[in-house]
Amino acid sequence: MRASGLNWQGLMEQLHQALPYAEVTDSSLTYFKYPARTVSLNLPVRMDNGEIRMFRGYRCVHSTARGPSMGGLRLKAGLNAHECEVLAAIMTLKAAVADLPLGGAKGGIDVDPATLSPHELEGVTRRYAAGLVELIGKQQDILAPDVGSDQQVMAWALDAYSEMVGETESGAVVGKPIPLGGSYGSKDARGRSAALVTQRVLENTGQTLERKPVAVYGYGEVGRKAARTLAEAGALVVAVSDAHGATYASGGLDLNALEDHRLKTGGLSGFGTAITPEELLELDVEVLMLAFDYGTINAGNAHAVRANYVVEATNRAVLPEAERFLKDQGVRVLPDLVASTGGLIVNYLEWVQDASNFFWTEEEILRAIDVRVNAAVNSVLAFMQERDVDMRTAAYAIALNRLTNATGMRGVYP
């Protein structure tokens, strides 16, 4: 599976579609158009063979108008500064839609983590955190997990940063293991929220998920939790895909058996009826859940989509040119600003717990996530109905209004 590109122009085009429905000033719009800062770093790391290899790292802070910035640490081959800037802006919008006191950021390292040994991965992670030591922190810019970075990577980042500043500052990094100040719900929040938003949107149209066929593109951590949550709500998960292929069962996949197979074999191959990931995107299903990376649905394949609902469980899974086509075909896109907000919410809750050094139970965390996800989707649905716009336009307008309020109250320094 390979994602297509994303660009700043497409983001701004969608933002401008929301302007007639938002109370935006010229000054607040100017702030949004220009990220606060983007830095690049050269990261020398001693490899296992003794050679020194130079890696390229990036960190973009888009906005701090509503609070310190927060965003992912991506470990991905081909990562560049432009990608980080677009995704950081999306994080700013997402935080505003969820009404969290945060701005948006994104960064990472141009590397495929699968090509590194654990020792090399630790080395490049520590170099990255150390290189940003003066720019990150619990009240400045908070590192969060993203593509290629798991709890162990975030633990290394926290340790490197803490060693540099001379004290353990847990709130500078989120997505950590629980013994290091992490939070319950961290692994499941994004997939769970994507499923809950899907369920709420269907309920808003008088439907349920009962016996509705669902396909999940990207059966990683997010996709697995989304599939499981949708199935618990009565949906038939008929197809899922990973980086190597896809499996299909018209009557619904046995997710328990599939998970046993995946753990034993390391993938989906050999389970059910084999199809290609591209064929999964073309299935006649009620819901197509996109949980891989940005650009899954693009101008080249949008015409083949037959789902009634397309859900962005990951940022920018549907590119603007594809969304225009889908909208004309009557396909409803549930945008990342709402559908994948659970990941940001649980990261925020971890940051809050670290700040107070008081930690909640798993039940309390899941309840808090659900409350905030439901509040976000309900506000977007209400705006949609009031102004007769699509879901993304409503989410953009709500975010822009909140950002305008923040920038207007803060003013311009000096």
TrEMBL record:
Outline the extent of the Glutamate/phenylalanine/leucine/valine/L-tryptophan dehydrogenase C-terminal domain.
183-411
Keywords, A to Z, come to: Oxidoreductase
Report the domain of life of the source organism: Bacteria
InterPro entries per UniProt: Aminoacid_DH-like_N_sf (IPR046346), Glu/Leu/Phe/Val/Trp_DH (IPR006095), Glu/Leu/Phe/Val/Trp_DH_C (IPR006096), Glu/Leu/Phe/Val/Trp_DH_dimer (IPR006097), Glu/Leu/Phe/Val_DH_AS (IPR033524), Glu_DH (IPR014362), NAD(P)-bd_dom_sf (IPR036291), NAD_bind_Glu_DH (IPR033922)
Molecular function per GO: oxidoreductase activity
Leader sequence range is none
Q: Which family does it belong to?
A: Belongs to the Glu/Leu/Phe/Val dehydrogenases family.
Could you tell me what this protein is called?
Glutamate dehydrogenase
Organism listed in the record: Deinococcus antarcticus
